[in-house]
Amino acid sequence: LSAQSTGARVRTYQSVSRPFNSSIDGRKFPVLVKSRAASTLAPRRVRLVFPICAKVGKGDAPPNFTLKNQDGRNVSLSQFKGKPVVVYFYPADETPGCTKEACAFRDSYEKFKKAGAEVVGISADDPNSHKAFAKKYRLPFTLLSDDGNKVRKDWGVPSDLFGTLPGRQTYVLDKKGVVQLVYNNQFQPEKHIDETLKVLSSI
To answer: How confident is the model at residue 26 (pLDDT cuts 50, 70, 90)?
Structure first.
């Protein structure tokens, strides 16, 4: 039976590809709304799902890595054994959210030192970008260059916005290199510092 013979109303939505301005780090990401016919008698709901789980979880010993820091020197995760270490993955240097997060770690750096912990930031930016970023904002901790996001993938750090934006995720490892916290919050970067310090005070 056709829509005309049954008297059913049918609305046709045209395919539209348009950018929207994300609230995440001030970037724009394309959204594609696909063409479809939908009866007004049977509306559909669309639910957006953002992954929040990761391969490396609490109680795990994450895979080791060796990456170059902002001075071009190799740094391995294994060299931090014997002290707590905070490893935070962030999307990119100089973006608003990432700058806010890095400066929050900087402002609380004495608290991390008092807890005996090292702070390590990781993104896909090259060492030169990290060096300029660290110098501009007087960052006293290590920034590592994860070329091709290999370590991010090995650790299973989830992405956001349908995989278009590298996720923001923080790990706290104890003295034995075992994860005691996995914290993911793309929208409130400062909360990574608060949650991290809470865990460090208890291990």
So the answer is: low
Cα separation of 184 and 182, whole Å?
7
Active-site annotation holder among 75, 86, 87, 98: 98
- For the chain, give every domain's residue range: 66-201
- The domain 66-201 is placed in CATH, from the list 3.50.50.60, 3.40.30.10, 3.40.50.2300, 3.20.20.70, at 3.40.30.10
pLDDT in tens, 86-138: 999 999 999 999 999 999 999 999 999 999 999 999 999 999 999 999 999 99
CA distance 169 to 184: 5
Number of H helices, E strands in the chain: 6, 13
Catalytic-residue membership of 103: no
Closest CA relative to residue 55, chosen from 197, 171, 134? 171
Pairing of strands 169-173, 118-123: unpaired
Indicate the pTM of the whole model.
0.73
Whose tokens are 């609490």? That residue is 58
Between the alpha carbon of residue 194 and those of residues 94, 143, 200, the distances in Å are: 22, 20, 10
